[in-house]
Design brief:
alpha/beta; Aspartate Aminotransferase, domain 2; Aspartate Aminotransferase, domain 1; 2 domains; 7-stranded mixed sheet
Length: 398
Protein backbone atom coordinates (compact mmCIF):
# COMPACT_ATOMS: atom_id res chain seq x y z
CA UNK A 1 0.00 0.00 0.00
CA UNK A 2 2.86 2.39 0.71
CA UNK A 3 3.67 2.52 -2.99
CA UNK A 4 0.27 4.12 -3.66
CA UNK A 5 0.47 6.91 -1.08
CA UNK A 6 1.61 9.62 -3.52
CA UNK A 7 -0.92 8.71 -6.20
CA UNK A 8 -4.38 10.11 -6.84
CA UNK A 9 -7.10 8.29 -4.94
CA UNK A 10 -8.78 7.15 -8.17
CA UNK A 11 -5.59 5.25 -8.96
CA UNK A 12 -5.24 3.92 -5.45
CA UNK A 13 -8.78 2.55 -5.35
CA UNK A 14 -8.12 0.69 -8.58
CA UNK A 15 -5.02 -1.05 -7.22
CA UNK A 16 -5.16 -1.20 -3.40
CA UNK A 17 -6.06 -4.54 -1.88
CA UNK A 18 -5.06 -6.47 -5.00
CA UNK A 19 -2.04 -8.60 -5.82
CA UNK A 20 -1.06 -6.26 -8.62
CA UNK A 21 -1.35 -6.14 -12.42
CA UNK A 22 1.80 -8.23 -12.95
CA UNK A 23 0.68 -11.12 -10.76
CA UNK A 24 -0.79 -14.07 -12.61
CA UNK A 25 -4.40 -15.03 -11.95
CA UNK A 26 -7.78 -13.35 -11.84
CA UNK A 27 -8.01 -9.59 -11.37
CA UNK A 28 -10.24 -9.69 -8.27
CA UNK A 29 -9.34 -11.54 -5.06
CA UNK A 30 -11.23 -14.79 -4.53
CA UNK A 31 -14.00 -15.33 -2.00
CA UNK A 32 -12.67 -17.44 0.88
CA UNK A 33 -15.45 -19.05 2.91
CA UNK A 34 -14.59 -21.18 5.88
CA UNK A 35 -14.57 -21.75 9.59
CA UNK A 36 -11.86 -24.33 10.33
CA UNK A 37 -8.26 -23.62 9.36
CA UNK A 38 -5.91 -26.62 9.23
CA UNK A 39 -2.21 -26.60 10.06
CA UNK A 40 0.29 -29.29 9.09
CA UNK A 41 1.97 -29.25 12.54
CA UNK A 42 1.25 -28.09 16.08
CA UNK A 43 4.34 -25.89 15.99
CA UNK A 44 2.95 -23.89 13.06
CA UNK A 45 -0.48 -23.61 14.64
CA UNK A 46 0.98 -22.40 17.95
CA UNK A 47 3.06 -19.81 16.11
CA UNK A 48 -0.08 -18.55 14.40
CA UNK A 49 -1.95 -18.28 17.70
CA UNK A 50 0.81 -16.17 19.21
CA UNK A 51 0.23 -13.59 16.48
CA UNK A 52 -3.57 -13.54 16.69
CA UNK A 53 -3.70 -9.74 16.28
CA UNK A 54 -2.05 -9.92 12.88
CA UNK A 55 -3.54 -11.17 9.65
CA UNK A 56 -3.04 -14.84 10.44
CA UNK A 57 -5.36 -17.64 9.38
CA UNK A 58 -6.47 -19.27 12.61
CA UNK A 59 -10.25 -19.56 12.54
CA UNK A 60 -12.83 -18.05 10.21
CA UNK A 61 -14.17 -15.49 12.69
CA UNK A 62 -10.69 -13.93 12.90
CA UNK A 63 -10.65 -13.08 9.21
CA UNK A 64 -9.86 -14.57 5.82
CA UNK A 65 -7.92 -13.58 2.70
CA UNK A 66 -11.15 -11.91 1.57
CA UNK A 67 -11.45 -9.75 4.70
CA UNK A 68 -7.84 -8.60 4.79
CA UNK A 69 -7.69 -6.79 1.41
CA UNK A 70 -10.86 -4.86 2.25
CA UNK A 71 -9.43 -3.85 5.62
CA UNK A 72 -6.27 -2.64 3.88
CA UNK A 73 -8.25 -0.60 1.35
CA UNK A 74 -10.40 1.12 3.99
CA UNK A 75 -7.35 1.95 6.10
CA UNK A 76 -5.72 3.50 3.03
CA UNK A 77 -8.83 5.50 2.13
CA UNK A 78 -8.97 7.06 5.60
CA UNK A 79 -5.24 7.48 6.07
CA UNK A 80 -5.07 5.01 8.95
CA UNK A 81 -2.86 2.01 9.57
CA UNK A 82 -5.21 -0.82 10.56
CA UNK A 83 -8.91 -1.56 10.07
CA UNK A 84 -11.40 -4.02 11.51
CA UNK A 85 -14.36 -5.04 9.35
CA UNK A 86 -17.61 -5.70 11.23
CA UNK A 87 -21.09 -6.83 10.23
CA UNK A 88 -22.87 -3.45 9.95
CA UNK A 89 -22.53 0.28 10.33
CA UNK A 90 -24.15 0.09 13.76
CA UNK A 91 -21.64 -2.59 14.81
CA UNK A 92 -18.90 -0.17 13.75
CA UNK A 93 -20.39 2.34 16.21
CA UNK A 94 -20.97 0.00 19.14
CA UNK A 95 -17.73 -2.04 18.97
CA UNK A 96 -15.28 0.83 19.67
CA UNK A 97 -17.64 2.34 22.24
CA UNK A 98 -17.51 -0.96 24.12
CA UNK A 99 -13.75 -1.04 23.66
CA UNK A 100 -13.20 2.25 25.45
CA UNK A 101 -16.09 2.46 27.95
CA UNK A 102 -16.63 0.59 31.21
CA UNK A 103 -18.90 0.84 34.22
CA UNK A 104 -18.55 4.24 35.85
CA UNK A 105 -17.34 6.05 32.74
CA UNK A 106 -18.83 9.12 31.09
CA UNK A 107 -19.44 9.56 27.34
CA UNK A 108 -19.99 12.75 25.33
CA UNK A 109 -22.25 12.32 22.27
CA UNK A 110 -23.36 15.06 19.84
CA UNK A 111 -27.09 15.78 19.92
CA UNK A 112 -27.15 15.22 16.14
CA UNK A 113 -25.86 11.66 16.47
CA UNK A 114 -27.20 8.76 14.39
CA UNK A 115 -30.41 7.53 16.04
CA UNK A 116 -29.30 3.93 16.76
CA UNK A 117 -26.11 5.27 18.38
CA UNK A 118 -28.24 7.42 20.69
CA UNK A 119 -30.40 4.40 21.47
CA UNK A 120 -27.30 2.31 22.28
CA UNK A 121 -26.14 4.95 24.75
CA UNK A 122 -29.57 5.20 26.36
CA UNK A 123 -30.07 1.45 26.69
CA UNK A 124 -27.13 -0.95 26.84
CA UNK A 125 -24.50 1.60 27.91
CA UNK A 126 -26.82 2.95 30.58
CA UNK A 127 -27.44 -0.61 31.81
CA UNK A 128 -23.67 -1.04 32.00
CA UNK A 129 -23.41 2.03 34.22
CA UNK A 130 -22.03 4.39 31.58
CA UNK A 131 -23.40 7.94 31.77
CA UNK A 132 -23.94 9.95 28.57
CA UNK A 133 -24.18 13.69 28.01
CA UNK A 134 -25.58 14.87 24.69
CA UNK A 135 -23.94 18.12 23.59
CA UNK A 136 -24.65 20.74 20.92
CA UNK A 137 -22.68 19.59 17.83
CA UNK A 138 -21.72 23.23 17.15
CA UNK A 139 -20.21 23.66 20.61
CA UNK A 140 -16.90 25.48 20.94
CA UNK A 141 -13.83 24.12 22.65
CA UNK A 142 -14.22 26.11 25.89
CA UNK A 143 -17.86 25.12 26.33
CA UNK A 144 -17.04 21.49 25.55
CA UNK A 145 -14.26 21.50 28.12
CA UNK A 146 -16.81 22.45 30.78
CA UNK A 147 -18.76 19.25 30.02
CA UNK A 148 -15.84 16.96 30.79
CA UNK A 149 -15.84 15.07 34.06
CA UNK A 150 -12.96 13.23 35.74
CA UNK A 151 -14.47 9.99 34.38
CA UNK A 152 -15.08 11.17 30.78
CA UNK A 153 -13.21 8.67 28.64
CA UNK A 154 -14.71 9.15 25.15
CA UNK A 155 -15.66 12.13 23.01
CA UNK A 156 -17.78 10.97 20.09
CA UNK A 157 -18.08 13.04 16.92
CA UNK A 158 -20.35 12.72 13.91
CA UNK A 159 -19.44 15.31 11.31
CA UNK A 160 -21.57 16.16 9.44
CA UNK A 161 -24.61 14.92 11.33
CA UNK A 162 -26.44 12.35 9.23
CA UNK A 163 -29.82 14.15 9.30
CA UNK A 164 -29.13 17.83 9.98
CA UNK A 165 -25.56 18.06 8.67
CA UNK A 166 -23.82 20.15 11.31
CA UNK A 167 -20.09 20.16 10.51
CA UNK A 168 -18.10 20.04 13.73
CA UNK A 169 -14.81 21.78 14.50
CA UNK A 170 -13.07 18.43 14.80
CA UNK A 171 -9.47 19.60 15.43
CA UNK A 172 -10.50 21.96 18.22
CA UNK A 173 -12.83 19.47 19.90
CA UNK A 174 -10.28 16.66 19.59
CA UNK A 175 -7.63 18.84 21.20
CA UNK A 176 -9.92 19.45 24.19
CA UNK A 177 -10.62 15.74 24.54
CA UNK A 178 -6.95 14.82 24.45
CA UNK A 179 -6.16 17.51 27.01
CA UNK A 180 -8.65 15.72 29.30
CA UNK A 181 -7.15 12.31 28.54
CA UNK A 182 -10.15 11.09 26.52
CA UNK A 183 -10.24 9.17 23.25
CA UNK A 184 -11.85 10.69 20.15
CA UNK A 185 -14.15 8.44 18.14
CA UNK A 186 -15.77 9.75 14.96
CA UNK A 187 -18.40 8.57 12.51
CA UNK A 188 -16.77 9.50 9.19
CA UNK A 189 -19.30 7.86 6.85
CA UNK A 190 -20.25 11.16 5.17
CA UNK A 191 -16.63 12.22 4.80
CA UNK A 192 -15.44 8.87 3.43
CA UNK A 193 -12.05 10.08 2.15
CA UNK A 194 -12.94 13.79 1.76
CA UNK A 195 -12.13 14.12 5.46
CA UNK A 196 -8.91 12.55 6.70
CA UNK A 197 -9.72 11.89 10.36
CA UNK A 198 -6.26 11.08 11.67
CA UNK A 199 -4.86 14.36 10.39
CA UNK A 200 -7.41 16.20 12.54
CA UNK A 201 -6.97 14.51 15.91
CA UNK A 202 -9.34 11.55 15.66
CA UNK A 203 -8.19 8.31 17.30
CA UNK A 204 -10.77 5.87 15.89
CA UNK A 205 -12.73 6.34 12.68
CA UNK A 206 -16.06 4.63 12.05
CA UNK A 207 -17.73 4.02 8.70
CA UNK A 208 -20.90 2.35 7.48
CA UNK A 209 -19.48 0.63 4.41
CA UNK A 210 -23.11 -0.14 3.59
CA UNK A 211 -23.23 3.33 2.04
CA UNK A 212 -20.68 4.45 -0.56
CA UNK A 213 -18.17 1.62 -0.42
CA UNK A 214 -20.75 -1.01 -1.33
CA UNK A 215 -22.68 1.50 -3.41
CA UNK A 216 -25.53 -0.77 -4.52
CA UNK A 217 -27.85 -0.90 -1.48
CA UNK A 218 -27.51 -4.66 -1.09
CA UNK A 219 -24.93 -5.27 1.68
CA UNK A 220 -24.70 -4.37 5.38
CA UNK A 221 -21.11 -3.79 6.50
CA UNK A 222 -19.04 -1.54 8.76
CA UNK A 223 -15.43 -0.65 9.48
CA UNK A 224 -13.40 0.63 12.43
CA UNK A 225 -10.04 2.18 11.50
CA UNK A 226 -7.22 3.18 13.84
CA UNK A 227 -3.83 4.80 13.46
CA UNK A 228 -1.90 3.42 16.44
CA UNK A 229 -0.94 -0.07 17.55
CA UNK A 230 -2.52 0.52 20.97
CA UNK A 231 -5.88 1.53 19.55
CA UNK A 232 -5.80 -1.27 16.97
CA UNK A 233 -5.22 -3.95 19.60
CA UNK A 234 -8.01 -2.60 21.79
CA UNK A 235 -10.55 -2.46 18.96
CA UNK A 236 -9.47 -5.79 17.49
CA UNK A 237 -9.66 -7.67 20.80
CA UNK A 238 -13.07 -6.17 21.57
CA UNK A 239 -14.34 -7.15 18.14
CA UNK A 240 -13.12 -10.72 18.58
CA UNK A 241 -14.56 -10.90 22.10
CA UNK A 242 -17.95 -9.83 20.75
CA UNK A 243 -17.81 -12.42 18.00
CA UNK A 244 -18.04 -9.71 15.36
CA UNK A 245 -17.88 -11.19 11.89
CA UNK A 246 -18.69 -10.07 8.36
CA UNK A 247 -19.56 -12.49 5.59
CA UNK A 248 -16.71 -13.06 3.09
CA UNK A 249 -19.28 -12.70 0.31
CA UNK A 250 -20.24 -9.25 1.61
CA UNK A 251 -16.57 -8.28 1.89
CA UNK A 252 -16.03 -9.36 -1.70
CA UNK A 253 -18.98 -7.23 -2.84
CA UNK A 254 -17.56 -4.27 -0.91
CA UNK A 255 -14.18 -4.73 -2.58
CA UNK A 256 -15.91 -4.67 -5.93
CA UNK A 257 -17.78 -1.53 -4.91
CA UNK A 258 -14.50 0.15 -3.98
CA UNK A 259 -13.26 -0.06 -7.58
CA UNK A 260 -16.00 2.26 -8.84
CA UNK A 261 -16.49 4.36 -5.71
CA UNK A 262 -14.34 7.29 -6.83
CA UNK A 263 -16.18 7.82 -10.10
CA UNK A 264 -19.56 7.33 -8.40
CA UNK A 265 -18.66 9.93 -5.79
CA UNK A 266 -17.47 12.38 -8.45
CA UNK A 267 -20.80 12.10 -10.23
CA UNK A 268 -22.89 12.17 -7.06
CA UNK A 269 -21.03 15.14 -5.59
CA UNK A 270 -21.64 17.19 -8.74
CA UNK A 271 -25.27 16.10 -9.02
CA UNK A 272 -25.91 16.67 -5.33
CA UNK A 273 -24.60 20.22 -5.52
CA UNK A 274 -26.69 20.88 -8.64
CA UNK A 275 -29.88 19.81 -6.87
CA UNK A 276 -28.93 21.54 -3.59
CA UNK A 277 -28.28 24.84 -5.37
CA UNK A 278 -31.60 24.49 -7.19
CA UNK A 279 -33.31 24.16 -3.82
CA UNK A 280 -31.77 27.46 -2.68
CA UNK A 281 -33.90 29.25 -5.29
CA UNK A 282 -37.16 27.55 -4.36
CA UNK A 283 -39.75 29.64 -2.45
CA UNK A 284 -40.90 26.53 -0.54
CA UNK A 285 -37.44 26.08 1.00
CA UNK A 286 -36.22 28.20 3.91
CA UNK A 287 -32.73 26.71 4.11
CA UNK A 288 -30.51 24.13 2.45
CA UNK A 289 -28.40 21.99 4.80
CA UNK A 290 -25.55 21.01 2.50
CA UNK A 291 -22.09 21.29 4.11
CA UNK A 292 -20.64 22.75 0.89
CA UNK A 293 -23.12 25.66 0.99
CA UNK A 294 -22.88 28.67 3.34
CA UNK A 295 -26.39 28.02 4.72
CA UNK A 296 -25.24 24.84 6.50
CA UNK A 297 -24.08 24.99 10.14
CA UNK A 298 -20.30 24.63 10.23
CA UNK A 299 -19.79 25.36 6.53
CA UNK A 300 -16.57 27.17 7.43
CA UNK A 301 -15.18 23.97 8.95
CA UNK A 302 -16.13 22.04 5.81
CA UNK A 303 -14.21 24.60 3.74
CA UNK A 304 -11.18 24.27 5.98
CA UNK A 305 -11.06 20.51 6.57
CA UNK A 306 -12.76 18.71 3.66
CA UNK A 307 -11.62 18.15 0.09
CA UNK A 308 -15.10 17.43 -1.30
CA UNK A 309 -18.68 16.53 -0.50
CA UNK A 310 -20.90 13.51 -0.85
CA UNK A 311 -24.47 13.31 -2.12
CA UNK A 312 -26.42 13.49 1.15
CA UNK A 313 -27.96 16.77 2.32
CA UNK A 314 -31.14 18.22 3.75
CA UNK A 315 -33.58 21.08 3.32
CA UNK A 316 -35.73 23.03 5.76
CA UNK A 317 -39.20 23.84 4.46
CA UNK A 318 -40.85 27.19 5.06
CA UNK A 319 -42.80 27.32 8.34
CA UNK A 320 -46.23 27.05 6.69
CA UNK A 321 -45.53 23.48 5.56
CA UNK A 322 -46.43 20.80 8.10
CA UNK A 323 -45.00 17.36 8.71
CA UNK A 324 -47.89 15.96 6.68
CA UNK A 325 -47.01 18.29 3.81
CA UNK A 326 -43.42 17.03 3.86
CA UNK A 327 -44.84 13.52 3.55
CA UNK A 328 -46.87 14.60 0.52
CA UNK A 329 -43.69 15.88 -1.10
CA UNK A 330 -41.99 12.53 -0.58
CA UNK A 331 -44.96 10.49 -1.75
CA UNK A 332 -45.29 12.42 -5.01
CA UNK A 333 -41.75 11.78 -6.17
CA UNK A 334 -41.27 8.99 -8.70
CA UNK A 335 -37.45 8.91 -8.96
CA UNK A 336 -36.81 9.13 -5.21
CA UNK A 337 -37.46 6.11 -3.04
CA UNK A 338 -38.75 6.76 0.48
CA UNK A 339 -36.20 5.01 2.62
CA UNK A 340 -33.35 5.16 5.08
CA UNK A 341 -29.68 4.63 4.28
CA UNK A 342 -27.87 6.35 1.43
CA UNK A 343 -24.78 6.05 -0.76
CA UNK A 344 -26.33 3.77 -3.38
CA UNK A 345 -26.82 4.48 -7.05
CA UNK A 346 -30.50 5.39 -6.51
CA UNK A 347 -31.91 8.65 -5.16
CA UNK A 348 -33.76 8.66 -1.81
CA UNK A 349 -35.93 11.03 0.20
CA UNK A 350 -36.74 10.90 3.91
CA UNK A 351 -38.75 13.49 5.85
CA UNK A 352 -36.80 13.78 9.10
CA UNK A 353 -38.91 16.01 11.36
CA UNK A 354 -40.95 14.01 13.84
CA UNK A 355 -38.48 11.14 13.73
CA UNK A 356 -35.46 12.83 15.32
CA UNK A 357 -34.72 12.87 19.04
CA UNK A 358 -32.92 15.90 20.44
CA UNK A 359 -32.30 16.51 24.13
CA UNK A 360 -29.74 19.34 24.12
CA UNK A 361 -31.98 21.97 22.56
CA UNK A 362 -30.54 21.71 19.04
CA UNK A 363 -33.50 20.34 17.09
CA UNK A 364 -35.36 23.51 16.04
CA UNK A 365 -34.56 24.51 12.46
CA UNK A 366 -37.65 26.68 12.00
CA UNK A 367 -39.44 24.24 9.72
CA UNK A 368 -39.81 20.65 8.61
CA UNK A 369 -36.55 18.98 7.56
CA UNK A 370 -36.31 16.60 4.60
CA UNK A 371 -33.21 14.59 3.73
CA UNK A 372 -32.16 13.77 0.17
CA UNK A 373 -29.62 11.36 -1.25
CA UNK A 374 -28.76 12.00 -4.88
CA UNK A 375 -27.99 8.94 -6.95
CA UNK A 376 -26.65 8.47 -10.45
CA UNK A 377 -29.73 9.72 -12.28
CA UNK A 378 -29.56 12.78 -14.55
CA UNK A 379 -29.95 15.88 -12.32
CA UNK A 380 -32.40 17.51 -14.75
CA UNK A 381 -34.72 14.53 -14.40
CA UNK A 382 -34.47 14.65 -10.61
CA UNK A 383 -35.25 18.37 -10.60
CA UNK A 384 -38.29 17.86 -12.83
CA UNK A 385 -39.47 15.18 -10.39
CA UNK A 386 -38.92 17.51 -7.43
CA UNK A 387 -40.89 20.26 -9.13
CA UNK A 388 -43.87 17.90 -9.36
CA UNK A 389 -43.48 16.91 -5.72
CA UNK A 390 -43.28 20.51 -4.53
CA UNK A 391 -46.36 21.38 -6.58
CA UNK A 392 -48.31 18.58 -4.87
CA UNK A 393 -47.10 19.82 -1.48
CA UNK A 394 -48.20 23.39 -2.23
CA UNK A 395 -51.63 22.19 -3.29
CA UNK A 396 -52.17 20.29 -0.04
CA UNK A 397 -50.89 23.20 2.06
CA UNK A 398 -53.28 25.56 0.31
Amino acid sequence: MADHKDQDWHTRLSHAGRNGPRVGGFVNPAVHRGSTVLYPTMVERTAGMKHRLDQKLLYGVMGTPTHYPLEDVIAEIEGGTRCQIVCSGLAAVTTPLLAYLKTGDHLLLPDSVYGPARNFANTLLRQMGVATTFYDPMIGGEALSALFRPNTTVLYLESPGSHTFEVQDVPALAAVAHAHGAKVLMDNTWGIHFFQPFKHGVDVSIQALTKYVVGHSDVLLGSVTTNSAEDWERVRLTSLSLGQYASPDDCWLALRGVRTMAVRLDRQEASGLTVARWFTERPEVARVLHPALPSCPGHEFWQRDFTGACSLFGIVLQPQYSQAAAGVLAENLTLFGIGASWGGYESLVLPASGFLTRTAGTGDFGGQTVRFHIGLEEPADLIADLERGLAAMREVAG
